[in-house]
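Forum: Protein Structure Q&A
Topic: Joint prediction for protein chains with partners

I've read a bunch of threads here and the consensus seems to be that you should model interacting components together rather than docking separate models afterwards. I'd like to see that in practice. Below is the full input, 591 residues plus whatever partners are listed. Could one of the regulars post the assembled result?
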Amino acid sequence: MLAVTWHIDGVIGSLVREDSEELASRGYDVVVLHPWHDDVSFKEDGITYRHVAITIKNNTNIVTSVISALGDFARAMSELFHERYDPSQVELVISYEWTGALLGSLAKRLLRKPLIASIHSVESMRTGERSLLSLSVHGLEMRFLHFSDLVVARSEEAYMRVLAEYRVPSDRAKIALSSRDMASIVMEVLEGS
Amino acid sequence: MMSWEYPPRIVGGLARHVYWLSKALAQRGVEVTVITLDYPETPRIEQERNLKIVRVESHDFTSSDFASWVHQFNLNMIEAAFEEEDVSLIHVHDWLAATAGVALKHLLRKPLIATIHSTEYGRRRGALHEALQRHIHEVEWWLAYESWRVIVCSNYMKSELTRFLGVPEDKISVIPNGINPFEVKLQLDVRKVRRRYAEDWEKIVLFVGRMVYEKGPHVFVDAALSLLSRRQDVKFVLVGEGPMRKDLMDKVYRSGFWHKFYFTGFVEDIELYELYAACDVAVFPSLYEPFGIVALEAMAMEKPVVASDVGGLSEVVVDGLSGLKVPPGDAQALSYAIERLIGDQSMAEEMGRNGAQRVRELYSWDSVGERTIRLYERVLEEYSSNPWKPKKLTREMP
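Posted by a regular:
Agreed with the consensus. Here's the joint model:
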């Protein structure tokens, strides 16, 4: 299982860790890919954390920060799947928020495996602005939610917005209020595939 | 090959460079796919024998600034590249396609070659005050760092990359820009063209370039006004668009010599070549110039040139042979150099002939294509003996 996230701290970071621990407790091997200051990997509580050193540090906003990190995430995925692991053994890619979905889209293309987008919040929940940046983030959310094979909302509010605002078909959207729910959804997907 | 510009989307010199280079490579048997941006009423995919052009959407998203626009169209470039099969190497032009190029390099594990046509540090003369400028500078560094080899168009640019981006000298290949002299040979009535701009007794002095500080249009206008104070049998034609145009037009108007200037704005290629053919001297007073393709265009049309002794222009123009060189920013020296050429027709004609010969010998696309293929072959040979390749190991997941 490959988990891709832009955040390893805060609320999203906690979700990533809890989901990974739950999946690990059910016997899955999980590799978490996240930005850091170096390119090392280590194992903790049965989960492999693969740091991704971010090259471009001068950015104009969150959109340029995330997209300009694509090359770094590609480097890390390349190292993982061309050198360390057999890519055919990866069953699923889980991404966190639009940032993770954007970066995780590379893994979906490279590995040709399903991508599950975990969505804690969407842009309209985070800001009341209608700035160009906000519209830009909204557009990227739209693009990568639709690129994902399944969107898992992590709250009722997020679920409602994923369906109503982003027009994700209800057969490709689910809700998981806990890591246990998330793990069950992952298992359903794997059983179905 | 990835470039944000490709005809008919022409922003600067990059579009023409990629167009002629991709054609030259394809003619020599290289299978080339150019991934570039869309343009109204232009097909998404074009294929002519072994040259394929793929145009991706450039405005199917919202962007809050230039950098996020660039990075978002890079997402589309990555998508398009994934549809291509059997990629041997990736060739990126400038920072604007760097994100896609670096990501593809790692995902496909294929060598990346970058042509860096100019640098942000050079364009800004080291003043990187804004976040966007620092971002571009950093992306340029990254592109050079990630590339197997970096191509630049002049020794001047090579030194710029070593000084400003810390690129090791032995990683850089100098391959000049090319020009196709046959492209610019036109059947035209020069006298008729001249009469569109000047009286028969007037000499025509031509400036071609964007109206931005680094191209020195203000130096040209100062030199022109200085020359006009000594003789009035000259007409100055400025071709190009840009933010300095209006201020320069105001300056010329206030000088009282407004009737001695033409500001044409952007012109189509055909008109540009007519102007080259009609002028007596072509002037390139740049303060920063990585190469100076416009000087080559003038030389190909057998015109003597006056150019700043700066950057790539310094390498393109041989002082006293194909033109005259003056210190950058020195309007007085420029005005006297122009005067010298318009005052000595036989010297001007000889310099024109010398310049055309130099263009044919050194700057044909045949030669540029050949040198680029040799570089590709060298990189692929190094790659073949390098363990960094796509692999599918059978090790267990942890």
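Confidence is low (pLDDT under 50) at residues 393-398 of chain B.
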